Structure formats: structure tokens, C-alpha cells
């Protein structure tokens, strides 16, 4: 067995897989990777099932070291400088981290989340069908919290892989596409304001929700409704300012929801940095379903895009 030891990691660094499903009726949110496309790409490069757990690394600098043996890995997602010792470490390409070598990831330059997949079986216990960390709920494995200095991730059946690479996969660009939310009609003229205005993501955002800064929206019921269900990408409006519900959201909410970011665009939205200006564009449910199918096809095609470097 080989070990990956955490030397330094920011508060948004944790183990995540595709998420846990089937228990939202009990109040258990799915959690999972913020950017499913980047997670899937990392897993494909190291030969894992596309839904397998990897290390989700936030925008702050992170440092890891191999212990007890070599590790074959791949790094995807946010654009950042990475190095093994003093040598550059490529993104979207497998690499070897030998016993005692240090992998350093500088702060992200573009995007928010990187994904580090290790070729081997991560030792831990699946909780409700997933390794994904949800710190608020105390769930996740091998640590039910963000990773911190001194943590050790153990891998069995460690594999040595050929030097393989993949073009960074891209899906969608421009305005983030949304479908109308369940309380859309109660926002009146504020729907036009929502679609015609630029928005920025507040630094006061996390895996539970991204707060948007922009014009104040109004609602016929003064933002108070009977709690109803939420989904990933629900845009609820509290006191005039929208909040996009992300992977660690609550399963219900008592604020009106003006729209929902389509699933195919949610990972791209999650990679958007604070203070970046963005806009939303409305599409209908049929178009959203078509985009979801196209996104699923892209995910399934990633292993076919791998080439020997």
C-alpha cells in the first residue's frame, strides 16, 4: 500500500465522488464533486470508474507527499501551476509521484477546483453509498471533513500506468442557461431584471451556495413561502439577492426560487471565480433535457479521448 500525506490544504479541499443519491427524502443532500466533468476526466485518465472518489482541491495552494511507495496520478480542473519537487507537473496527463516526492499545487489562476485522482483503491468506508464529504452533516470518508495537514490517504492495489494524456474537455460557454423556477411567475418584472443584468459571485460563497451580487429582486410574497424541495442549481432569492444552491445545499428551502441552472452548466458555474461578471439565459425544459443528454454522452466518451503521450 502507498500513502498520500497532506502537508497543506485549504478549507475547500476534500474527498469527493459523484455523490450520494436516494436519501433526499430524509434530508440527506447528494454532495459530490462541484465540477463533475473535471472529476470524470481525472478518473478516466487513471483508469477508474468515472464516478470514483478523488481529491477535490479548492483555489488555495495545496501540498502533498507520497509515502511508502510510488503513486500514479492525474490532475484536472482549474488552471494552476503544479510541480513535483522543482519539476513542472502537467494537467490532464498521468504522472508518477515517487516515494518521498512532493506535489505542490499553487493557487488557482483560472477556475476554482482541481481534481487529483490516484490509480488505486482509496481505503475508507462508503457512507450512504458515497465517499463524498459533507462537513456540515459529518459525512464522508476517510475523513468526514475537509482535508488538513497531517491527514494520510491510503491506497491499495496501486497501479503503474503508461504516460497518457487527454485534451481538456469543454462543455458550454457564455451565459449560464437556466429553466424557470417553481416561483418564477411570482417575481413579475424582476424576471426581466434577472436576465438583463450582470451578476457577480460573492467571496462569501461555499459548497452549500454561491451568493450573487447585483440588483435587488422583488417577489409578490415578500420572499416568504412554505418550504419546498430544492435541486442542485436552484436559484433562491432571499431579501432581494439570489443564492445558487450547490452540492452541499439543504434538500428543502423556504425562499422562492426564480430559476434553476441546468445540470450541464452547473460544473462550469462552480468553476467561476468571485467577482467575475456573468449572465443568465433562459431555455425551456426540453432544451435542458437535450443538453443533459449531450453532457452525459460527453462524460461517457472521455476514456475514448485518452491518448499515449
Overview of the structural elements:
It comes from Afipia felis (Cat scratch disease bacillus). InterPro entries: CT_A_B, Cyclophilin-like_dom_sf, PxpC. This is KipI antagonist. Keywords: ATP-binding, Hydrolase, Nucleotide-binding. This protein is an alpha+beta fold and 309 residues long. It folds into 2 domains: 2-163, no CATH class; 176-299, Cyclophilin (Beta Barrel), CATH 2.40.100. The protein is 14% helix and 32% strand. It has an 8-stranded mixed sheet with strand order 22-15-16-19-18-21-14-23. The two termini are 27 Å apart. The model has no long low-confidence stretch (mean pLDDT 96).
CA-atom Rg in angstroms: 20 Å
Number of helices: 4
Report the portion of residues in β strands: 25-35%
Secondary structure: number of strands: 24
Q: What is the residue-averaged pLDDT?
A: 96
First-last Cα distance: 27 Å
Portion of residues within helices: 10-25%
Largest sheet: spatial strand order: 22-15-16-19-18-21-14-23
- Give the overall shape: elongated
The biggest beta sheet reads: 8 strands, mixed
Order of helices and strands: EEHEEEEEEEEEEEEHEEEEEEEHEEHE
Structural class: alpha+beta
- Low-pLDDT sequence parts: none
Instruction: Provide the domain count.
Output: 2
Amino acid at each position: 500500500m502507498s500513502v498520500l500525506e497532506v502537508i497543506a490544504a485549504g478549507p475547500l479541499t476534500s474527498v469527493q465522488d459523484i455523490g450520494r443519491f436516494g436519501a433526499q427524502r430524509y434530508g440527506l443532500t447528494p454532495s459530490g464533486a462541484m465540477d463533475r466533468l473535471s472529476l470524470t476526466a481525472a478518473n478516466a485518465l487513471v483508469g477508474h470508474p468515472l464516478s470514483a472518489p478523488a481529491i477535490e482541491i479548492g483555489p488555495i495552494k495545496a501540498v502533498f507527499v507520497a509515502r511508502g511507495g510510488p503513486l500514479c496520478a492525474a490532475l484536472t480542473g482549474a488552471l494552476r501551476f503544479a510541480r513535483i519537487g522543482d519539476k513542472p507537473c502537467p494537467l490532464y496527463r498521468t504522472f508518477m509521484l515517487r516515494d518521498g516526492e512532493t506535489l505542490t499545487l499553487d493557487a488557482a489562476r483560472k477556475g476554482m477546483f482541481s481534481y487529483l485522482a490516484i490509480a488505486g483503491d482509496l481505503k475508507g468506508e462508503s457512507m450512504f453509498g458515497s465517499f463524498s464529504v459533507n462537513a456540515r452533516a459529518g459525512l464522508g470518508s476517510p475523513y468526514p471533513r475537509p482535508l488538513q495537514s497531517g491527514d494520510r490517504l491510503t491506497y491499495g492495489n496501486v497501479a503503474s500506468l503508461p504516460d497518457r494524456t487527454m485534451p481538456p474537455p469543454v462543455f458550454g460557454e457564455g451565459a449560464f442557461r437556466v429553466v424557470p423556477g417553481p416561483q418564477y411567475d411570482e417575481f413579475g418584472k424582476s424576471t426581466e431584471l434577472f436576465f438583463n443584468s450582470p451578476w457577480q459571485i460573492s467571496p462569501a460563497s461555499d459548497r452549500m451556495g454561491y451568493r450573487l451580487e447585483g440588483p435587488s429582486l422583488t417577489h409578490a410574497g415578500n420572499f416568504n413561502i412554505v418550504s419546498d424541495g430544492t435541486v442542485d442549481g436552484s436559484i433562491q432569492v432571499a431579501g432581494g439577492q439570489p443564492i445558487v444552491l450547490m452540492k452541499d445545499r439543504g434538500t428543502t428551502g423556504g425562499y422562492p426560487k426564480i430559476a434553476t441552472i441546468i445540470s450541464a452548466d452547473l460544473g462550469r458555474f462552480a468553476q467561476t471565480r468571485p467577482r467575475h461578471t456573468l449572465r443568465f439565459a433562459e431555455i425551456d425544459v426540453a432544451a435542458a433535457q437535450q443538453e443533459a443528454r449531450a453532457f452525459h454522452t460527453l462524460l461517457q466518451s472521455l476514456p475514448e479521448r485518452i491518448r499515449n503521450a
